[in-house]
Amino acid sequence: LVGNFYALFDIPGIDGLTYRINYGNNTVFAREYGSRVYGAGETGEAFKNNSLQIEHTLDNIVNYTKQFQKHSINATFVYGFNTVEFERTAALGQGYDDLTLSYNNLALAEIQRIESGGWDEALLYQMARIGYNYDERYLLTATLRRDGFSGFSRDNKFAIFPSIGLGWALSEESFFNASFVDYLKI
Questions:
Q1: Which of 22, 36, 56, 177 is 20 to 30 A removed from 90 (C-alpha atoms)?
Q2: b/e burial code for range 142-168 (CB count within 10 A of at least 16 → b)
Q3: Confidence (pLDDT) at 41
Q4: Are residues 134 and 142 in contact, defined by beta-carbon separation less than 8 angstroms?
């Protein structure tokens, strides 16, 4: 079961400012079962596995875009989280006198194995990005992302990931005369 929902709002009074909320849900039910008459040294085997995974994601996104003369800026801020829960139970039976009931009665097996497990994880994230464009030729993007993850070590649950990008639309320069190139950016 997958569901993705979002709403987008233009903030009144400030041109170019928007707020978007995204919610996603992904739930996976897995049921697997079967039997093999020739398994386990031709004494037959049967198995039954059930698992469930539930994932939720929520994003809050604020974006601001402004253009004036030859300048334009785009700023984005994201705050969100993601959670995942998983659980699994598996049972296997080997060595049957009669495999008629198959996986519907694993207790009839001579050898019975049962496994179960589960885990959960959570991710909390924030991101700020600003982009600057001058005359569709010179581009700058700076991003700062902060992630908190339940799988990180106990004393370091959060990490910061900065990045910067520079661009030059060479094909937009007046001296660029290569007719076979529509757009070239470095």
A1: 56
A2: eeeeeeebeeeeeeeeeeeeeeeeeee
A3: 67
A4: no
d(CA 124, CA 54): 17
Task: Label the pairing between strands 45-68 and 111-134.
Answer: unpaired
Cβ atoms of 22 and 3 within 8 Å: the answer is no
What's the whole-model pTM score? 0.77
What pLDDT, on the 0 to 100 scale, is given for residue 83? 97
108: CB partners within 8 A, 6+ apart: 93, 96, 97, 98, 101
Per DSSP, the chain holds a count of helices (H) and strands (E) of 1, 7
Quote the pLDDT of residue 26.
Answer: 97
Residue 107 burial (C-beta neighbours within 10 Å; 0-12, 13-18, 19+): exposed
Tokens of 78: 């994201």
Residues 6+ apart with CB under 8 A from 9: 18, 19, 20
